[in-house]
Design goal:
By secondary structure, the chain is mainly α. Helices cover 78% and strands 0% of the residues. The radius of gyration is 17 Å and the shape is globular. The chain starts with 5 loop residues before the first helix and ends with a helix. The mean pLDDT is 84.
Length: 261
Amino acid sequence: MEDPGLLILLFLFAAALLAGFIDAIAGGGGMLTIPAMLLAGIPPLQVLGTNKLQSLFGSGSASLAYARHGHVDLRSQWPMALTAAAGAALGALLATVVPGDALKAVLPFLLIGIAVYFGFKPDAGHLDRHRRLSTTAFALTFVPVIGFYDGVFGPGTGSFLMLGFIGLAGYGVLKATAHTKFLNFGSNVGAFAVFLAFGAVLWKVGLVMGAGQFVGAHLGSRFAMKQGVRVIKPLLVTVSVVLAIRLLADPAHPLRLWLGF
């Protein structure tokens, strides 16, 4: 594509800043950055690759902010982040050769399910609970599966990780949010490495958006730590529902094409 002009870069910076803020709290930043890049005329494969570059800044910034305030121990989470990276690398390899229509078809309903779970279970994630999976089992099963999804497509990854940390690992909402960001950083690294190898990364766009992501994620993580469950749960429900509606509203969504409307 042609080198983007200043106005397009400013538009993408603003989209990334807002996405970084939202993503640091509840996930779902991809629902802003991916459409923004498509509107800017960037081809789909380059959108996925460049999105991973700019997402590294957001997930990295949020991870550091949560770690500095004691909500996540980054050293102890490295093995789990590596399994997320491995899953994402495999997903990204698939994304370079196979369209993710099946994932796009089922994703809105999974997101609505997450919204219903957090919206109608008032005490969900307020406090740490008994874990349903051991740390090893969680790291070797759930984490790489979500990492794989992040490599193939991406939007909603944070919501799925949040659900896993709360429902399976027994974490409270704020602790789950903090750990989600670091695993998201791992999956971004894995997918980015693959897209980079395929030449699907636009560096200027990615670095400009990365700056926006970094600032937005820093502000979002500080806001989440101050407000806690009061803001994280409602935003998680809202982001999940809005993302599901946006996906279903797309005329090119596989379900609409299959049903003929």
